[in-house]
Amino acid sequence: MLRTYILVVFIAFCAVGFSQEIENDSVLNPNDSISDYYVRFEGDSILYSSIQLEEVYLFGKLEFADRSERLRYLILQRKTLKVYPYAKLAAERLVELNDSLQHIKKRRHQRKYTKKVQKFIEEEFSEELKKLTRTEGQILVKLIYRQTGTTAFDLVKELRSGWRAFWYNTTASLFKISLKEEFHPESIHEDYLIEDILQRAFAGNKLERQESVLDYDYAQLSNKWKNAPPESKN
């Protein structure tokens, strides 16, 4: 039953729905100063005097107080890497659906289109989502908030009704899962560990990067938790 409700939440949410090459015609004339040098990216007609690079993180070596702490991190890592693609897909579907609905004026046609998207998602991912464990489902709920800034509860409420959202949340709570769960790596140590796992996976090309809509700085979080007292991490 738990997996069914996780599936319903994910499907409902989905129903809602740097590098570039520099063209060869950028030439530095010997008589030009450095300020006269411009580049143009492939497919772009605008000339740029500088190139903005992506932010790069330097990761410290993972250190653990004991074997149990290391095991906890590795288990969390496995579960996070497993469910992140679903949260990323959900965020993408939200953007796609909202963009499409802006061009559909009649509410009846909007509902019809939304149902088609929901059916597509269900057929494509239902069997995989049913395999999620309780803790994987809770991490997925957290990551949905990370990617969208909205809880799974509010997404269901918007898609279905307030009563159904309440019912789903009440049922999920029996299995210690809250659809109202948010993601706060600045104040919850496990959430920071999830963010650390994601950033390392992005850097190692294990996951495709999708920026969080939340306002926090990973580098500052790392410094904060590195110097935090042990009791705050429990």
TrEMBL record:
InterPro entries: DUF4294 (IPR025636). It comes from Flagellimonas iocasae. This is DUF4294 domain-containing protein. Pfam families: DUF4294 (PF14127).
